[in-house]
Fold:
Amino acid sequence: MSQPAGRSVLADFAAALAGGSLKCVDLTNTLSPDFPVIVLPPEFGACAPFRMEEVSRYDANGPAWYWNAISMNEHTGTHFDAPAHWVTGRDLPSNTVDAVPPADFLAPAVVINITREAAADADFVLTRDFLEGWEQANGLIPPRHWIALRTDWYKKVGTPDYLNMQEDGAHSPGPDAGAMDFLVHERDCVGLAVETVGTDAGQASHFNPPFPAHSILHGNGRYGLQCLRNLDQLPTFGAIIVACPLKIEGGSGSPLRVIAIIEEDAA
Structure:
């Protein structure tokens, strides 16, 4: 639809931001050496935590500047999963973070609230039946949206309950294969965005097939966002998520700053 003479969609957007009718919500956890990373069985490689070493701070090493050397795994803290992260996506085109189309870094979101279910059962499994029931109550999930699972899990950051490691591994909510097939193939989602440390449930290694979120998302060129916060500040429909990973050559993922743009009175 054309705009009236002298106006444009971007001009209206800029005016709304400047005028305060749109606001930004920070969906990113603070990256620090204390932020937990996913724990894999000991026979596999470990995910390195964030490390930071001061180079200079207005001192003899640099009298007028402050900077640090940092190191981390690509999948540390609030982070983005590209298709190449999983074996199912290894042969797809544009499958690494430097090759993902930039337009995919900005997309609308549907927020699905499963806080009650996750509070009652840390191993709550999101199914197709649940999603179809959710749609009956809330409306159809539009295509090319992030599916953001609100669990309020971010409120556990800083406690052992965030990773929720027990003798048999981690316990956290996530989808099964039926839910992922539905979201990818029938609702054409951009990807899955979660507040937990991974897009899959903590016990997803025992699912059939194992790790269905990673397998189905990345095998179909879709993305993952993990370790988000503040999804409780977003409306069910109407938020725009901006998630731009670092442009790492051949990278499988990246820590990043994720924001959402919402209308001031939307939440």
About this structure: The mean pLDDT is 96.
